[in-house]
Specification:
Blueprint (H helix, E strand, L loop, with lengths): L30 H15 L5 E4 L6 H4 L4 H4 L10 E5 L5 E5 L3 H8 L1 E2 L5 E4 L10
Parallel strand pairs: 1-5
Antiparallel strand pairs: 2-3, 4-5
Amino acid sequence: MKLPLEGLWFSPSGQSLPRKFAIAGKGGSGKTTIAGTLARLMASKMEQKLVAIDGDSNPNLATTLGLPHEKISQIVPIPRTVVNRTKDEYGKNKIVLTKKPDEIINEFGIDTPDGIKLLLMAAIDHAGAG
């Protein structure tokens, strides 16, 4: 079965195109469930590399993506040192990566059972942080 959204993935010439999706909503609205289900569905139907990023301060996307608990505890969140905050020529704040995106994915990403590479942006490191 092919997804009816194939037009989102390819240019008119048939060239594969990268896409970014973000899931947003109120607390408790099912964002993680939707994001995980969508990622797993896309990974099963598409032949493109898929990276899922959990930016929640209470990350649970790993569970939704089928990672066992012992593997979840091994995930290293992306450190703040991968970004450098500077100012542009007009004095506006600018964020620049200190590594190439592929390097960040390879270094901090963890493979899920469905072939999705998962990145963790944050983790609660003290009480009251989430």
